[in-house]
């Protein structure tokens, strides 16, 4: 049986966004506890490969900044502000995709 996104494999209830948001700050090598049954959970796999997020962030910042500077002939600070806005949108999209693709398994420590 395939688990839904953010579903606890023990109690089959969705783990809260607050618990899952710890992965955004700490990374995917850590475990979390289900907010319903307190079972220790780990990720089945990385929701979105880290390299893709870095590449998306880089491209969503650099390409718009270069476009605004050289094609639209904007000033530096104005082009940076547009690039920051688009980078922020790309960050939000990466966060939403991460939450959509999180799959948990029970954590069994080695040894």
Would you spell out the secondary-structure blueprint of this structure?
Layout lengths: L16 H4 L1 H5 L5 E2 L6 E4 L6 H22 L4 H26 L2 E3 L5
Antiparallel strand pairs: 1-2, 2-3
Structural commentary:
By secondary structure, this protein is mainly α. Helices cover 51% and strands 8% of the residues. It has 4 helices and 3 strands, in the order H-H-E-E-H-H-E. The chain has helices spanning 17-20, 22-26, 50-71, 76-101; strands at residues 32-33, 40-43, 104-106. A 3-stranded antiparallel sheet has the order 1-2-3, with no helix packed on it. Helix 3 (50-71) packs antiparallel against helix 4 (76-101). It starts with 16 loop residues before the first helix and ends in a 5-residue tail after the last strand. The mean pLDDT is 86.
Distance between the termini: 28 Å
Which class best fits the helix and strand makeup?
Answer: mainly alpha
- Sequence of strands across the biggest β-sheet: 1-2-3
Into which percent range does the helicity of residues fall? Answer: 40-55%
Q: H/E order of the elements?
A: HHEEHHE
Q: What overall form do the CA principal axes indicate?
A: elongated
Number of strands: 3
Q: How would you sum up this structure in a few lines?
A:
This protein is mainly alpha-helical and 111 residues long.
List its traits.
111 residues; mainly alpha; three-stranded antiparallel β-sheet; 4 helices
């Amino acid at each position: 049986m395939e688990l839904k996104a953010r579903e606890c494999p023990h109690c089959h209830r969705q783990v809260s966004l607050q618990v899952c948001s710890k992965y955004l700050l700490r990374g995917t090598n850590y475990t979390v506890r289900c907010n319903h049954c307190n079972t220790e959970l780990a990720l089945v796999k990385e929701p979105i490969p880290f390299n893709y997020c870095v590449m998306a962030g880089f491209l969503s910042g650099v390409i718009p900044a270069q476009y605004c500077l050289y094609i639209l002939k904007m000033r530096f600070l104005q082009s940076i502000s547009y690039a920051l806005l688009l980078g922020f949108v790309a960050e939000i999209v990466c966060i939403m995709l991460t939450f959509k693709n999180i799959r948990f398994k029970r954590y069994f420590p080695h040894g």
